[in-house]
């Protein structure tokens, strides 16, 4: 029998061996190199380095043992070492003396008039001596003496060898002595070298001149510039090789570093040469040329004549070609920005450049750049005004390509621009049509304040300079009214001023066209709010984020001294740093313009009865008020005859209005209060009632959610009701309009070590915050710790900082703490303190601190307490393990348990009199405070440069002492409604939890988030809700057949709940270099991800999961191919920076090998690689094979793990030997129930061990990016994600049992309803039946169907009847999804948590977790196969064998496809993303056979996903061989 490990002869096949993964040593780059001064044999050095490295790694532990066993060297060894050092010092002294003597001889020979032969000999000896000299052996006197001689000899034109050697000596002198350049310049070496380059006679001399000039220019650029070095190195550059050309351009770059105010003529003469070099293909060469031109343009930007001169040589054409995204020459980001800056300067000062850019269709290039910038998710990488940022330069260029509309900037160049555009309306229309949509897109994507201001500035110019017809055409396809309404949610006065100017310009030209849409979208309302905020409702006022014009003169003057004022966003000429920039906005300018617009354009609309709102707005508002009034009446009990069905009519009105013919704007939808009233109806006042909700209220919440669900969810199966879709779209649009969550990027930070004294006293790769702790007023019992400014780890939780501070200010240790937590026992820690903390002791101490945390409960008053996440930081891994504690917070009063010894519960921190939330890290808390205090003007520079004064105070003790806790309100049996079987207060708990602290609860944004959360939950639990409704209908007699209880639903796709704007913001935030953990991002990122993960796309949540679970891992540039294959891109990098551990496994003992592997390495941060015993394969392929085999082992009969495995463990061993086939379940694997009475022995212990191992394997697969072939059921995934199961979940893994239990439950509720009905006599005579059969006649006992040994305690002989049917259903449900499987699930979680905390998975859905863990098994079409499969080494896509193979692959059934994938890649499934995500790509190559190809078999190399396919004579023969190989060749990895 053949297999894929069979060895075959391959004569001409140069590919790696069959199924043999790549060795990391084969691809390892050599680290050896040759020195410029001391050439050595690179081969020998490399081999020596490898041998040394190998011996070091192999003998590391043995050396340590030797050292510990035998101690240090004895006195004889020390004496021998001293003797060797003395010999070495003597050798060095003799060598220095000898070199000095020889140099004197050379100097003497060169000084005298000698023959050319002697001169050449002296120069040769000098060039041999200088490379080995040092500053100690070559004195300054000697250099000064040699310099004029070698400079003189460099002009020795009669003998080229003399010139060559003398210039080489000049080069060596620059290398050896630091002051050599000074002497060489003094004796006119630069003009001499330049002269040789301007009149090239000998190429080797010229190349040596270039090398010498590069050395000198690095130290003395100005003399080189004055001597015309740039022109000299560029004049004949085409004669040299690429490497020498790079040397010449390095010289030019050095010279251009510091250009004088008055550029010499030679500099401008070099511009044509530089512009010509921009056409070259060498990237390094082009980048250096671009740098030179960037420097030159910066220096001459004040002169229009010189800018015009720059335009004459094709600079604009070449620069626009290079910045084009379609350019084949890819330049670095700084150079791209610099080239864009050149165009900015040219467009600013040269009308020639202005015209040329329009003629070159520059708008198309800029549109592509901004579109790519928008696709990279929105928020610009320029929180600071950074002139090196490409996008910033794009905004500047667009601004310069439009004439200024400011009167104070009226100039000749500005007037020329206006005349040109007026005479060329087609160019202006093309420019505007290209850029306006993308500018609107950038603003709508949630860009930061700077990007918003830049886009609005350009839009304002376009609106201003466009004539009426052009403006109408431009705005026809752009919802400008909605766009401007969204802009008015910004708080910055510069942005508001631009928005008002746009509104004014549009209304001046087309008032009759846009006035009604401005009213509908809320633009009128926003303008009126700016003028008279007190006239408007507080809720609508908050819709525009509380925009308000303060009359406080002090605030105005403070705002006018902003360091990075937006008034200077487009400044092309930097102002002196000493000049104080003041805001150019005049006093009351925003208010004045808003008043002008209101009085001139909106006077009539404001005078009508609707006060500037539309009829639709008023209708929605009336409905909203009616619903709110009804809710208030029901809460206060003022309407005794008001019943729940009374709400149905008004809910129908709301939905009909939202889905009506007349479109509803975001302003109308949100401003009418519909969202707020719907939440008020659903929550029954739970959100605002401080006394807590009664059990009746909690039940009413669940009931009202069902009522709303009945309205929103489809009445017919497999149909999606438009009501729900429309409501979701309205909410998403509204959320994107009103949310203003901050994104903080730190692109200026450098990755270097920073010492953080607080709280752990260790070095970090991220910067620290400067903090001064200040004792609060009246805190006399606390010590004053306000000595000096301390460096604090910004990503440490505030609890940890308080834990550090507590012993300092009290002299006491917090419970469970140790002095090792702080770097010093008392006093302020010093920067650079050597007293580092032992990681193990610190981790243990912090764990002890957090073990004392009280468990999460609910307060006696019914108020829901908030979770505080404290972090246990492991210094060695940087991982954070979060524990839960609680604190009840009310305004400034913090009540805690009086006997809590935890330091974090005894101290609170304030910043500017604002309490800091201890759930956050210091960085998050400060960022949150600054964002709210300074609106949108927080920059990265200002955040890190400040010194923060944190005030510490004791917590105010409550008079009542310890808080009393009680469980959540539960329903009494009498309060259960018949329509709510298996009641769980799921939806009511939503209104008690906090979504995010970055959004105020009283704002529309918070209401939108909460309502979206409710709708998303309704969508996920659609089956449960509709099933409950069917049961209710059966109970009340509206349906009579049990078959009518069956439900088939079509849910709204999960991506409908994804908010693109928030997804883009989070994605951009995670790209920040300081996002090394979730604590390094704004608080809303983790809070919204926890409370509303559905708002973010799956790919973004996957990256967030990796960041939260594993931290930021930087991709290594030189990683062997096996580290990158076999998983999706998001998962491959999980282990890229982790060490690798190889482990031997046995094919005949897979689970035993897996148990041993996990026991040793589950908790270690290493990437596991499997190697099979007696096989040669290692790396990715065998590792994926190992995980596949483990997956199959867990599915075998006899383990007692899964439903369907009815064997007892005692019989499993004999059965396993006879039948090794796996369990077959169409609905996935779900734990088999085990009774507590029979599960205490050895049998159940083995089951628990298997579940623990399964948890470890699943977690390790997720961590290392491996694929498992485990078909878990949807219900089991729910258990993994920490979700509770209900009666309705049973149907997902056992449809027969689930359906029967639902029908039994319906009969139970029907029986209750009939007993309580008014027709009691009739009810007693007519008892419900199960499909025309009495319950008693079913002959059911109290055992689990399929598991007769699982019998309830004391119910061995008890039979099921109508009276105890409810008890039977409850028992079966409990045994199936609760008590019968709880210990297995806990064992799984226990094993999982040994690798990483399972709670990080909770941001995923069941389907998403399955994709992440098990990959995909997709149906391939021919287009996908051609696009994602690579053909190489003799094959192309049109080769007949390839065509036949693709046809065979398309004919595979699912099992054959899995076998094929396992044969080629090692895993039977593809990673998430399918073939497109397979890395390396699946590659088909030609296999060269020694004999007939029809007699050979295909082979594979799993490390590279290579399939080596012989050129078979026919498709039939190929199919025969391929099927044989993938079915029989799966059992070993051997040489091919």
Give a brief outline of the structure.
It contains 63 helices and 20 strands. It is mainly alpha-helical.
Structure description:
With 1536 residues, the protein is mainly α. The two termini are 15 Å apart. The N terminus is likely disordered.
Secondary structure topology:
Elements: H1 42-70, H2 75-111, H3 116-129, H4 140-153, H5 160-176, H6 180-186, H7 189-198, H8 203-219, H9 221-226, H10 229-235, H11 242-255, H12 265-269, H13 271-277, H14 283-300, H15 304-311, H16 315-323, H17 333-349, H18 351-359, H19 362-375, H20 390-400, H21 412-423, H22 425-444, H23 449-465, H24 468-476, H25 480-487, H26 493-521, H27 523-531, H28 538-543, H29 553-559, H30 589-601, H31 603-607, H32 615-636, H33 646-658, H34 666-671, H35 674-683, H36 695-712, H37 722-738, E1 754-756, E2 762-764, E3 769-775, E4 790-792, H38 798-810, H39 839-851, E5 858-859, E6 866-873, E7 880-890, E8 893-895, E9 907-911, E10 914-915, H40 922-933, H41 940-945, E11 947-954, E12 965-966, H42 986-990, H43 1004-1020, H44 1022-1035, H45 1060-1070, H46 1083-1091, H47 1098-1110, H48 1129-1132, E13 1140-1145, H49 1150-1161, E14 1167-1172, H50 1180-1193, H51 1209-1218, H52 1242-1264, H53 1274-1280, H54 1290-1293, H55 1295-1316, H56 1320-1325, E15 1343-1344, E16 1347-1351, H57 1365-1377, H58 1382-1393, H59 1406-1414, H60 1422-1428, E17 1429-1432, H61 1440-1450, H62 1454-1465, E18 1482-1486, ...
Parallel strand pairs: 3-11, 13-14, 17-18, 18-20
Antiparallel strand pairs: 1-2, 3-4, 5-12, 6-7, 7-8, 9-10, 9-11, 15-16, 19-20
């Amino acid at each position: 029998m053949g297999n894929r490990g069979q060895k075959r002869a391959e004569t001409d096949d140069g590919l790696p061996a069959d199924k043999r993964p790549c060795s990391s040593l084969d691809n390892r780059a050599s680290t050896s190199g040759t020195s410029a001064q001391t050439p050595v044999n690179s081969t020998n050095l490399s081999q020596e380095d490898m041998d040394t490295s190998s011996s070091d790694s192999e003998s590391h532990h043995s050396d340590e043992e030797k050292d510990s066993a035998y101690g240090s060297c004895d006195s004889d060894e020390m004496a021998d070492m001293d003797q060797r050092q003395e010999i070495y010092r003597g050798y060095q002294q003799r060598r220095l003396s000898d070199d000095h003597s020889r140099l004197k001889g050379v100097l003497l020979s060169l000084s005298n008039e000698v023959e050319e032969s002697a001169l050449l000999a002296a120069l040769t000896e000098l060039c041999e001596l200088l490379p080995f000299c040092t500053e100690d052996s070559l004195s300054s006197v000697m250099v000064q003496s040699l310099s004029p001689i070698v400079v003189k000899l460099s002009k020795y034109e009669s003998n080229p060898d003399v010139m060559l050697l003398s210039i080489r000596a000049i080069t060596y002198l620059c290398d050896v002595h630091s002051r050599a350049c000074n002497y060489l310049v003094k004796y006119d070496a630069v003009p001499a070298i330049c002269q040789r380059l301007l009149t090239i006679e000998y190429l080797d001399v010229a190349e040596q001149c270039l090398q010498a000039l590069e050395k000198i220019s690095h130290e003395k650029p100005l003399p080189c510039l004055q001597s015309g070095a740039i022109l000299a190195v560029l004049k004949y550059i085409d004669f040299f090789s690429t490497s020498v050309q790079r040397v010449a351009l390095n010289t030019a770059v050095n010279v251009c570093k510091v250009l004088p105010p008055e550029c010499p003529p030679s500099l401008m003469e070099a511009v044509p040469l530089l512009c010509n070099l921009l056409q070259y293909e060498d990237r390094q060469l082009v980048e250096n040329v671009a740098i030179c031109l960037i420097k030159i343009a910066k220096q001459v930007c004040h002169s229009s004549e010189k800018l015009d001169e720059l335009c004459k040589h094709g600079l604009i054409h070449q620069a626009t070609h290079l910045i084009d995204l379609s350019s084949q020459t890819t330049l670095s980001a700084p150079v791209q920005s610099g080239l864009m800056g050149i165009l900015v300067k040219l467009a600013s000062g040269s009308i020639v450049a202005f015209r040329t850019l329009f003629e070159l269709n520059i708008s198309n290039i800029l549109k592509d750049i901004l579109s790519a910038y928008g696709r990279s998710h929105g928020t610009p990488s320029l929180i600071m005004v950074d002139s090196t940022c490409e996008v910033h330069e794009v905004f500047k260029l667009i601004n310069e390509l439009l004439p200024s509309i400011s009167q104070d900037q009226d100039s000749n160049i500005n007037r020329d621009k206006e005349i040109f555009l007026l005479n060329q309306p087609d160019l202006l229309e093309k420019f505007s049509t290209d850029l306006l949509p993308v500018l609107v897109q950038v603003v709508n994507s949630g860009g930061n304040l700077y990007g918003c201001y830049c886009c609005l500035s350009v839009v304002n110019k376009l609106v201003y300079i466009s004539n009426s017809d052009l403006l109408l055409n431009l705005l026809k396809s752009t919802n400008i009214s909605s766009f401007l309404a969204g802009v008015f949610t910004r708080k910055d006065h510069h942005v508001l001023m631009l928005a008002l100017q746009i509104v004014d310009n549009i209304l001046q030209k087309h008032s009759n066209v846009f006035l009604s849409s401005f009213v509908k979208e809320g633009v009128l309302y926003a303008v009126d709010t700016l003028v008279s905020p007190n006239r408007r409702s507080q809720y609508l006022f908050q819709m525009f984020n509380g925009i308000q014009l303060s009359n406080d003169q002090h605030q105005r003057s403070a705002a006018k001294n902003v360091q990075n004022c937006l008034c200077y966003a487009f400044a092309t000429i930097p102002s002196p740093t000493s000049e104080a920039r003041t805001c150019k906005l005049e006093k009351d300018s925003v208010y004045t313009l808003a008043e002008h617009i209101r009085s001139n354009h909106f006077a009539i609309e404001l005078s009508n009865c609707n006060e500037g709102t539309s009829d639709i707005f008023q209708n929605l508002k009336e409905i909203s008020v009616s619903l709110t009034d009804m809710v208030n009446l029901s809460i206060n009990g003022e309407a005794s005859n008001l019943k729940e069905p009374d709400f149905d009519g008004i809910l129908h009105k709301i939905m009909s209005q939202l889905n009506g013919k007349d479109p509803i704007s975001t302003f109308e939808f949100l401003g009418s209060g519909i969202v707020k009233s719907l939440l008020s109806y659903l929550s029954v006042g739970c959100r605002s009632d401080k006394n807590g909700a009664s059990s009746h209220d909690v039940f009413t919440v669940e009931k009202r959610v069902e009522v709303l669900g009945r309205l929103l969810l489809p009445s017919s199966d497999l149909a999606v009701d438009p009501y729900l879709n429309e409501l979701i779209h309205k909410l998403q649009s509204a959320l994107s309009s009103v949310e203003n969550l901050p994104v903080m990027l730190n692109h200026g930070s450098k990755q270097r070590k920073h010492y953080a004294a607080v709280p752990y006293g260790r070095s970090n790769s991220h910067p620290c915050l400067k903090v001064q702790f200040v004792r609060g007023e009246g805190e006399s019992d606390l010590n004053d710790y306000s000595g000096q400014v301390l460096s604090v780890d910004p990503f440490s939780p505030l609890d940890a900082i308080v834990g550090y501070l507590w012993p300092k200010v009290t002299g006491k240790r917090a419970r469970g703490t140790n002095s090792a937590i702080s770097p010093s026992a008392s006093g302020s820690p010093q920067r650079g303190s050597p007293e580092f903390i032992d990681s193990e002791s610190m981790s243990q101490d912090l764990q002890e601190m957090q073990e004392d945390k009280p468990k999460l409960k609910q307060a006696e008053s019914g108020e829901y307490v908030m979770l505080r996440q404290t972090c246990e930081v492991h210094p060695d891994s940087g991982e954070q393990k979060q524990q839960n504690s609680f604190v009840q917070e009310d305004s400034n009063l913090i009540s805690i348990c009086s006997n809590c010894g935890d330091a974090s519960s005894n101290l609170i921190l304030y910043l500017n009199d604002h309490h800091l939330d201890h759930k956050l890290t210091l960085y998050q808390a400060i960022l949150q405070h600054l964002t709210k205090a300074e609106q949108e003007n927080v920059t990265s520079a200002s955040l890190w440069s400040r010194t923060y004064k944190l005030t510490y105070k004791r917590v105010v003790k409550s008079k009542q002492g310890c808080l009393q806790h009680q469980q959540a309100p539960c329903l009494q049996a009498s309060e259960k409604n018949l329509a709510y079987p298996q009641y769980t207060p799921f939806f009511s708990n939503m209104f008690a939890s906090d979504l995010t602290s970055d959004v105020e609860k009283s704002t529309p944004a918070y209401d939108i988030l909460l309502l979206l959360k409710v709708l998303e939950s309704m969508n996920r639990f659609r089956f449960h809700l509709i099933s409950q409704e069917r049961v209710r209908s059966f109970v009340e007699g509206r349906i009579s057949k049990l078959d009518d209880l069956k439900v088939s639903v079509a849910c709204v796709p999960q991506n409908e709940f994804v908010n693109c704007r928030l997804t883009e913001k989070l994605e951009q935030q995670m790209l920040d270099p300081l996002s090394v953990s979730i604590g390094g991002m704004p608080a809303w990122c983790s809070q919204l991800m926890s409370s509303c993960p559905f708002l973010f796309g799956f790919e973004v949540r996957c990256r967030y999961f990796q960041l939260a679970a594993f931290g930021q891992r930087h991709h290594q540039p030189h990683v062997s191919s096996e580290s990158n294959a076999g998983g999706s891109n998001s998962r491959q990098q999980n282990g890229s920076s982790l060490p690798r551990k190889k482990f031997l496994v046995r094919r005949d003992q897979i689970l035993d090998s897996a148990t041993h592997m996990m026991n040793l390495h589950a908790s270690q941060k290493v990437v596991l690689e499997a190697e099979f015993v007696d096989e040669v394969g290692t790396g990715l392929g065998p590792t994926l094979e190992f995980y596949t085999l483990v997956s199959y082992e867990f599915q075998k009969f006899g383990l007692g793990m899964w439903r369907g495995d009815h064997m007892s463990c005692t019989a499993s061993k004999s059965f396993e030997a006879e039948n090794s086939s796996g369990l077959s379940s169409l609905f996935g694997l779900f734990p088999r129930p085990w009774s507590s009475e029979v599960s205490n022995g050895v049998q159940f212990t083995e089951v628990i061990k298997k579940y623990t191992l399964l948890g470890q394997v699943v977690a390790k697969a997720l961590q290392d990016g491996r694929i498992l072939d485990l078909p878990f059921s949807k219900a089991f995934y729910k258990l993994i994600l920490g979700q509770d199961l209900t009666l309705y979940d049973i149907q997902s893994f056992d449809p027969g049992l689930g359906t029967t239990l639902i029908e039994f439950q319906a009969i139970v509720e029907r029986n209750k309803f009939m007993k309580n009905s008014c027709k009691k006599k009739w009810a007693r005579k007519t008892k419900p039946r199960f499909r025309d059969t009495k319950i008693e006649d079913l002959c059911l006992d109290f055992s689990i169907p399929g598991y007769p040994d699982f019998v309830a305690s004391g119910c061995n002989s008890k039979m099921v009847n109508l009276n105890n049917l409810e008890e039977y259903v409850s028992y079966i449900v409990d045994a199936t999804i609760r008590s019968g499987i709880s210990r297995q699930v806990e064992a799984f979680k226990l094993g999982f948590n040994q690798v990483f905390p399972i709670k990080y998975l909770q941001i995923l859905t069941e389907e998403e977790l399955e994709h992440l863990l098990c990959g995909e098994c997709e149906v391939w079409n021919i287009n996908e196969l051609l696009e994602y499969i690579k053909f190489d080494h003799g094959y192309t896509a049109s080769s007949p064998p390839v065509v036949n193979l693709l046809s065979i692959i398309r004919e595979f059934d699912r099992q054959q496809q899995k076998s094929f994938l396992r044969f080629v890649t090692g895993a039977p499934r593809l990673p998430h993303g399918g073939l497109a995500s397979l890395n390396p790509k699946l590659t088909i190559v030609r296999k060269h056979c020694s004999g007939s190809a029809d007699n050979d078999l295909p082979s594979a190399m799993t490390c590279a996903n290579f399939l080596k396919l012989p050129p078979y004579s026919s498709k039939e023969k190929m199919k025969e061989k391929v099927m044989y190989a993938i079915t029989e060749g799966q059992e070993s990895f051997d040489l091919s």
